[in-house]
Amino acid sequence: MPKQHLNPSGMHTPTGYSHIVKAGDTIYVAGQVAVAPDGSVVGEGNAAAQAEQIYQNLQNALASVGAKLSDIVKTTTYILNPDDVGAVRESRLKYLNDNPPTSTLLIISRLARPEFLMEVEAIAYVG
């Protein structure tokens, strides 16, 4: 099966990348930030609100190819402030509580836009 590059409806339109690349049974989801479908930033200055939007984006991205959050096998999370770890963990528990995937958390100096407090990318497997 050839790989597919997808930008699902119901998600903001990316520039220069695809939200999803599906290669066989593996789904790669680009780093998701707190952006609503209309392109607006959600929860500026609010880590919990941004984490919630990010996990909703991941859920929407996966649903567009018939997958679920429970199909995620790996996440990489980037945050700016170590104090936001609690907000990230709370959302992870809410959305990925059953059989949580492997995970890497990195504290970095900046993201693509100053309004973003965090970003989460994921790999899912549906085989």
Q: State the domain count.
A: 1
pLDDT < 50 stretches: none
Helix content: 10-25%
CATH homologous superfamily placement: RutC-like
Roughly how many Å apart are the termini?
13 Å
Total strand segments: 6
Molecular structure report:
With 127 residues, this protein is α+β, with helices and mostly antiparallel strands. It has one domain (4-125): RutC-like (60s Ribosomal Protein L30, Chain: A, 2-Layer Sandwich). Helices cover 23% and strands 28% of the residues. The chain contains two helices and six strands. The chain has helices spanning 47-63, 85-96; strands at 4-6, 20-23, 26-32, 72-79, 102-107, 118-125. Strands 1-2-3-6-4-5 form a six-stranded mixed β-sheet, covered by helices on one side. The model has no long low-confidence stretch (mean pLDDT 95).
Please name the defining characteristics of this protein.
alpha+beta; 60s Ribosomal Protein L30, Chain: A; 6 strands; 23% helix; 28% strand
Q: What's a concise summary of this model?
A:
The protein is of the alpha+beta class. It has 2 helices and 6 strands. The protein is 23% helix and 28% strand.
Give a topology summary:
Blueprint: E1 4-6, E2 20-23, E3 26-32, H1 47-63, E4 72-79, H2 85-96, E5 102-107, E6 118-125
Parallel strand pairs: 4-5
Antiparallel strand pairs: 1-2, 2-3, 3-6, 4-6
Helix pairs in contact: 1-2
